[in-house]
Amino acid sequence: LGFFSPSNSSIPAGLYLGIWYNDVPELTTVWVANRETPATNTTTLMLSLTNTPNLVLSDGDVGGRAVWMTTNVATVLGSSPPVAVLLNNGNLVIRSSNGTTLWQSFDHPTDTFLPGMKLRIQYNKPGTSDRLVSWKGPGDPSPGSFSYGGDPITFLQVILWDGERRVSRSGPWTGYLVKSERRYQQANASADIIIYLAVVDSDEEIYITYSLSDGAPHTRYVLTYFGEYLVQSWNSKTSTWLVLGKWPSPECNRYGYCGAYGYCDETAAPTPTCKCFDGFKPANTVEWTNGRFSAGCRRKEPLQGCTDGFLALPRMKSPDRFSIVGGGTSTFEECAAECNRNCSCVAYAYANLGSGRSRGDVTRCLVWSGDLVDTGKIGEELGSDTLNVRLVGVDVKEQRGML
């Protein structure tokens, strides 16, 4: 923890309070306190802990201009002075005399997601969520235009934004608690890193967090100023940060890239590409053939109404713009019936969230009444849904008999 001035900074003599890796020779900051208000008085810059208790960064001598201070600090318990501690996981905490955490930097992320951090949505604060926010540029830690975090409207998906525009989106949560991702630093399998992603849902909040396999080198997620969400690992042999993965990737996974009723087939070899749902065809064949997919797809035959059935498409990333119905709908049959009796419903997806939710609703039923946008095929990966799409030629009676 200390003061730093970014290389190539566009702000003369701008100093920031930050946290970085002590044993990485390349300055790699993971948290910045005063990212919106750089200190300009380089003669005297002071960080102090008050009895209120607050950390205060002052530009100047005692009593100088406060350029940053902690917020939402809990009440001190006990009469002894509080202490500030930098933990070995990169978390700066203020503790009371009895060890209670009153404030922590992990609750106020900047552009980096570290092991043990939480990206949360609090149920008692609708419309808000924890977000990573990119730097504005390579030498400017001030908040940039890109952000990453949970969707505060649905509580079920994670989104990468450029301002208010969606850049990429995960599929809605299907109830998994932990999933592992194996990443390789080099071609040989002995250099692998396992990242354990977890989703925790309680009465107060839902959040994602992660941990690493034993012996893993420094590994972090970072949202860059050019809009990519990267997982990086430090390679001590080459003294470089290796990119083990990035999002969005592939290109067709960018939000809405394949247009309405098109989907990004991430299982296609050798290159993921846009495809149309069964029963659909490109809306503009010439553009589609030339690799321009924004016009999407259209039905080969128009719907007849409620007489049409539903085609099950397994291993899909469900589309965006869904509605959640029947809070706690208990069965797949009830979810299917909810869409069947609404002639404007074009698709539905059901999932049993199981022990993933401690609250009363252990299932979720998603329905769509408009164009299906930002859909993908992701294979057997945790998080995939079976998407049921209304389609001409699917026998309703036969389908209901199979439910």
Automatic annotation (TrEMBL):
Domain Bulb-type lectin as annotated: residue spans: 1-107
* Topology within the bilayer: Single-pass type I membrane protein
Q: CDD domains in the record, alphabetically?
A: B_lectin, PAN_AP_plant
**A molecular-function term among this protein's GO annotations:** protein serine/threonine kinase activity
| Cross-referenced SMART domains | B_lectin
A GO cellular component annotation here is: membrane
- The first-level EC class reads transferase
Q: Where is the signal peptide?
A: none
Any idea where this protein resides? Answer: Membrane
Q: Which reaction does it catalyse?
A: L-threonyl-[protein] + ATP = O-phospho-L-threonyl-[protein] + ADP + H(+); L-seryl-[protein] + ATP = O-phospho-L-seryl-[protein] + ADP + H(+)
Q: Which UniProt keywords apply?
A: Disulfide bond, Receptor, Signal
The record's listing under Gene3D superfamilies reads: Bulb-type lectin domain
What the entry lists under Pfam families is as follows: B_lectin, PAN_2, S_locus_glycop
**Any idea where the Apple domain is?**
306-391
Record PANTHER family: BULB-TYPE LECTIN DOMAIN-CONTAINING PROTEIN, OS09G0551150 PROTEIN
Could you identify this protein by its name? non-specific serine/threonine protein kinase
